[in-house]
Design a protein that fits this description.
It is built from 16 helices and no strands. With 397 residues, the chain is mainly α. The longest helix has 36 residues.
Length: 397
């Protein structure tokens, strides 16, 4: 099996537990005699574990090769999912959530580090598109499991079985991850990764600043995506007066646009250059956010969200792909770990801030808030471009 296909399947599998918890939680909370709001207390444990695992991935990869880490982490995720299915109490669920966070953070960071070294723009964007596919299949897995049994636990047994197959695949291909040559179409990524001047001559203090700025860009970008996914429906119905059915279709359209954008814009980036597509996408994110912020007919906000989905699609994978240009080859693994960790923090903190904004100001404030996040992300990216260009290695034309 080509490793790029296995990486895509891993992203599908990684998304399954993330999309299942929200659907299974009403049944889980009833079994454990917990109020529905307890889910808000459970999530920080998983996020903290994912952040810790992501930041440690670079150090782990200095002691074992990527195949070994992926194998071990996937086995750990199987243990966590079986822990969900066998949990006798809520605190067992908390423990399983921590274990799953440790496993998913390592897999996410490890796959992105590998993709940044070995894949081209086409394959890394397709890999990230597969996360959306897995997120869509998760509810189907729950529905299928519940159709055979009213017990939510069977859903986690099914997902654990899928993860076990993935773990076996990683175990069988473990050495290939360390020894396999670049995937077809990755010549551009290979040139970037091995160029001796790119980031390598930068002073240590400057590189630390670049790593911090890069992490901030990831936090703002993923925070923006997560905020749209969580609050766009409220914004369109309460803030812009759209019907619930129309608002629901628009939110689905946002995710569909992101999925299709990753499928289409990856090959475009491979031909035109990742930097060009990335710069245009960042500008498109700002433009789409501005459409949601400007007072006017509801159709303007509707179109803005669809533009946001399409423009945001390649940003995360292409930012990952160009990491070596910013920090140098020797810092790629650790930097990607920090970037993944920062994205998790952004996904947790910024949507929560949006909730406070809605509570105290109203749903109409979401449009300007999205624009503010987009501008912060674009400003951070612009600074990264200037910093890299000043070292003689521009990442944008």
């Amino acid at each position: 099996m080509p490793l790029v296909v296995l990486a895509c399947l891993a992203y599908v599998s990684m998304a399954l537990p993330d999309s299942v918890l929200g659907i299974a939680w009403p049944s889980m909370s009833a079994d454990f005699h917990q109020p529905l709001g307890t889910l808000g207390l459970l999530l920080p444990f998983g996020i903290a574990a994912t952040v810790l695992s992501s930041t440690m991935t670079g150090r782990i990869l200095t002691r074992m090769h990527i195949g070994q880490m992926l194998s071990a982490s996937t086995v750990l995720s199987v243990v966590a999912l079986l822990g969900y299915s066998l949990a006798p109490s809520f605190w067992w669920v908390v423990a399983a959530t921590v274990v799953l966070g440790l496993a998913s953070g390592a897999v996410d960071s490890g796959l992105n580090a590998y993709a940044a070294r070995r894949f081209g723009a086409r394959h890394i964007t397709w890999m990230h598109a597969c996360y959306g596919l897995g997120a869509g299949l998760g509810p189907v897995a729950v529905a299928g499991a519940l159709s055979f049994s009213p017990q939510w636990r069977w859903a986690y047994v099914v997902i654990a079985a899928v993860q076990l197959l993935l773990a076996c695949a990683f175990l069988r291909t473990g050495r290939l991850w360390a020894d396999r040559p670049n995937e077809p179409g990755a010549a551009e990524a290979r040139t970037r990764a091995t160029a001796p001047t790119r980031g390598c001559g930068r002073p240590a203090g400057s590189r630390r600043y670049v790593v911090a700025m890069s992490a901030a860009v990831f936090a703002f970008h993923i925070g923006l995506e997560a905020s749209i996914g969580l609050w766009a429906y409220v914004f369109l119905t309460t803030g812009r007066g759209l019907s619930p059915a129309t608002a629901g279709m628009v939110v689905s359209g946002f995710w569909a646009a992101m999925f299709l954008g990753r499928l289409v814009l990856g090959p475009v980036a491979e031909r035109a250059g990742a930097a060009r597509v990335l710069s245009c996408s960042v500008a498109g994110v700002v433009g789409g956010a501005a459409m949601t912020a400007v007072p006017g007919p509801a159709v303007l906000a509707l179109a803005g969200l669809l533009v946001l989905g399409l423009a945001a699609a390649p940003v995360f994978p292409l930012l990952t792909l160009t990491t070596a240009e910013r920090v140098g080859q020797d810092r790629v693994d650790r930097t990607i770990g920090f970037q993944i960790a920062a994205s998790q923090i952004g996904a947790a903190v910024l949507p929560a801030g949006m909730g406070l904004l809605v509570q105290h100001v109203g749903a109409t404030a979401l449009g300007p808030a999205l624009l503010a996040l987009a501008l912060c992300m674009a400003t951070g990216y612009g600074l990264l471009v200037r910093l890299t260009a000043s070292a003689g290695t521009p990442i944008a034309p």
